[in-house]
Amino acid sequence: MDKLTTHFDLIILGASGFTGKYVVREALKFLNAPSSPLKIIALAGRNPQKLSQTLEWASHPHPPPPVPILAADTADPPSLRRLAAQTRLVLNCVGPFRLHGEPVVAACAESGCDYLDICGEPEFMERMEAAYHEAAAKSGSLVISACGFDSVPAELGLMFNSRQWSSPSVPNRVEAYLSLESEKRVVGNFGTFESAVLGVANAEKLMELRRSRPRRARPVIPGPSPPKGPIIEHQKKIGLWAVKLPSADAIVVRRTLATLTENPHGLPGVDESAEQVKKRETFWSTVNPAHFVVKIASKSIFSIFGFITVGMFIGLLGRFAVGRWLLLKFPSVFSLGGFRKKGPTEDEVRSASFKMWFVGNGFSNSAFVAQGNKKPDMEIITRVMGPEIGYLTTPIILIQCALILLRQRDNLPKGGVLTPGIVFGPTDLQERLQENGISFDVISKSALSA
């Protein structure tokens, strides 16, 4: 497919969903804006009336622009192939991806159309890599999942912390602490909860998939593997209680680090200039791999007990069909009010924000490790901070990834099923996010007491 002769710059699939309508609103900010590559877009889905209502909502208080509405259904592969043939890029907002995502990936990988989604489901992402990487690489289709809050803040946040370790210092581990903050109680949308439940249901399938595939390269990280530590942690430096979060973030980061280990200079662009090659290689030379884990955090230990309780409900009931039915029938009950089918109100969304602290521990001199010093003696704390995660931060990230892909396509890999970190790491994505309300800050650099 000739990407320069396609009709649309991008098509938003599933635009009338909870997150999809916010993605439309974010995209309209850049439609025909000065220096924006976004000139013509379309909305796609099963219900044209709902898509028209979404366009009106997203355009308010202005009249809706002339954006075409296209019929497409994830249960109708020919409609998806027609969609992919008309555009340079598909933004897929139809979840859960385990149930609805594969036909869209297949259509894009076959046609050569690029694909971004906001998936946070590890089993789906790794299955798509196994099934479609070669086809996408051959057709020139970039298929990139997790281009929302899952998992760009984690990926770029780790890289940002890692790059603060100037030689001869090196990190050993980076622990991310996610704190969700709001003046009001924010309720998550049902799709996120459903994805978590399906993630538990498919955990064994993910293990089987990994066992069936060749083992990926593991990065060489100076020093010993970090100890497991207590189940509930009090991180005094940032004043938060925390418990490990079984999210997709750490898994996506490990996939990025594995690709980087196999390709130390990153992945070459489809038509890079010599200047861009040097820029990419210089960037990756400053990224130090580290052990990485994500934890959910709060100033209140009682909130941590709430997180643990919800995790136990999902972990125990999600393994059985009857248990999954109960979880999905009564999400508000089993999430202790954290999720509901109607999603949050506009006021709740506007009142919410997140802080993601990255506490890096390592060695002030890499030579110390070779001399037998196994205890880190240096700490660097950084932070990523932004608005509500699901409806504001996720659309910001997805649209900025899309703009980079449209503007800088020659500098990106030809194709394949890849992680956002390995594709967008050497681009100006961090700077773009900072310009759109997501900040990256160095909080402290200090020596650790012996």
Automatic annotation (TrEMBL):
Organism listed in the record: Actinidia chinensis var. chinensis (Chinese soft-hair kiwi)
Membership in a protein family: Belongs to the saccharopine dehydrogenase family.
Superkingdom of this protein's organism: Eukaryota
GO terms for cellular component: lipid droplet; mitochondrion; plasma membrane
Gene Ontology BP, a term: glycolipid biosynthetic process
Alphabetical UniProt keywords: Membrane, Transmembrane, Transmembrane helix
Protein name according to UniProt: Mitochondrial saccharopine dehydrogenase-like
Residue span, Saccharopine dehydrogenase NADP binding domain: 11-144
Transmembrane segments: 301-322, 389-406
